[in-house]
Design a protein that fits this description.
This protein has 136 residues and is mainly alpha-helical. It has a domain of 91 residues. The chain is 60% helix and 0% strand. It contains three helices and no strands. The longest helix is centred in the last third of the chain and has 36 residues. The protein is elongated, with a radius of gyration of 32 Å. The termini are far apart. The model has no long low-confidence stretch (mean pLDDT 82).
Amino acid sequence: MEDSPETVVLSGTPSAESGDSKEFNPYAGGGAYQQPMVPVPQANDSATYSMWLGIATWICHITAGFVCFTACLAPLTTIAGIVFGHMGLKTSKEMSGLSRNEAIAGLVLNYLSLAMYVIGIVFGAALLGVGLTELG
């Protein structure tokens, strides 16, 4: 049979200084030391995704002349950015303004891209209509 460990009882304060010190000593009197609570920062990921998707959309627009596949990615990032922007804006209202500016920036970037697509389609349809009337 094994011997149980020996119990050691310590007395006094575990401080190198004398007991006359006016500094706070968490080990002296008054109960156990409790570490102060630090608030955990919250994040509004939807707003952040919207903003980054808006930036990615405009990078796709700018590089579409050089790298052709980015022209195919831009509509997808625009739609995803708008959806995430509205989700982030709703979350920011529920969490008292958390990342509201990021959500608004993402929505502005993505809606400008969407407006550019709509203008391009209307302008293209107008050119196509003029071309068809001249042929007929």
